[in-house]
Amino acid sequence: MKKILGAGGMKDAQFWVAMAEKLLAPLLFAAATNGRTVGQVVRWLDEGAEASEGEVTELLEESGSEDALRAWRATLNREERQRASVFSTAQATVEAFSDPYVIEETAGADYTPTTLLDGGANTLYLCAPEHEQERLAPLFSMLVQELLAVVAESTTATGKPLDPPLLLLLDEAATIPLVTRTVERANEALAAWQRWRADHLQASLRIARNCAKAGGELWFHDKRPCAHEIEYSAHPFLRPV
């Protein structure tokens, strides 16, 4: 991301990253649907639009995906200097995959988010020496983002939390922009839940007071939200179940 920022600052960076994503999507699709690896995507980017246009277009036409083909042509139709900048940004995004060792390791990797979340006691370690962390940050970010996307889709489809739950231990996550946003979203969700919990507790106490005024009592089930936070001695009209 530092390499992408340039003189225009974050606003320009967001524009170029969005354009690079639009370029990378059909390239990754073309590679995946034809048994190619990310290494092939790196080669297409290194060769440039003119050299890779014919092969990529043919693969996308054979795939039958109009959306992927449209996205690819959108990049090809850009003004030459803008197209070159988009390719350069995409190259910086997948730079980690230009490393022969990374290409070799990922070509035969059997990891997928689905296998990690198959219900077993599975663990995925992402580690890099300090001098390689900046270069590998996009790769790590991609893996974390993909995993969280699968989690979101799964919980939305089932309406239930993961079982067993997913635990993420992210060291120095604040130094990786994409992961930082993920952490921010998690904090926002936690803050929203805490506000809901406080509102729920206050509402429960108001109901209990009204019950007490009418000569009744409000009984709380131990597993109800916030029940464990209530000091029953301070509210004699409440009774835990």
Layout of secondary structure:
Elements: H1 2-5, H2 9-32, H3 38-47, H4 49-63, H5 66-76, H6 80-93, H7 100-107, H8 113-116, H9 133-158, H10 177-213, E1 218-220, E2 238-240
Parallel strand pairs: 1-2
Helix pairs in contact: 2-3, 2-4, 2-5, 2-6, 4-5, 9-10
Explained architecture:
This protein is an all-alpha fold. The protein has three domains: 1-109, no CATH class; 111-169, no CATH class; 178-240, no CATH class. It has helices at residues 2-5, 9-32, 38-47, 49-63, 66-76, 80-93, 100-107, 113-116, 133-158, 177-213; strands spanning 218-220, 238-240. α4 packs antiparallel against α5 (66-76). The longest helix has 37 residues, at 177-213. The radius of gyration is 25 Å and the shape is elongated. It starts with a helix and ends with a strand.
Structure summary:
The protein is mainly α.
Strand content: under 5%
Distance between the amino and carboxyl termini: 54 Å
Sum up the overall morphology in one term: elongated
Oligomer: single chain
On the 0 to 100 scale, the average pLDDT is 78
Rg calculated over all Cα atoms: 25 Å
Total count of strands: 2
Largest sheet: 2 strands, parallel
